[in-house]
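Problem 12. The chain below contains 67 residues. Write out its predicted structure in token notation.
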Amino acid sequence: MSNLGSSLGTAIAGTILVAGITATPERSYALAMAALAVAGVIGLVAAVMLPAEIHMRVAQEAPQPES
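Solution.
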């Protein structure tokens, strides 16, 4: 999952940097870093929302076939 996040962040920042959205390279870099910060905060919120404990469901006991 970490590799997926790194790849997505690199893709977002790279796209913003080479797209030429702003007039100056400094603003483009700042916009790319802001986009990465927003993506990081979204990831942090998603991680906080995960349950703290994993509850496993126990299969209902079925009668064992006689051998």
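Discussion. The mean pLDDT is 77. Students who got a different answer should revisit the alignment rule from Section 12.3.
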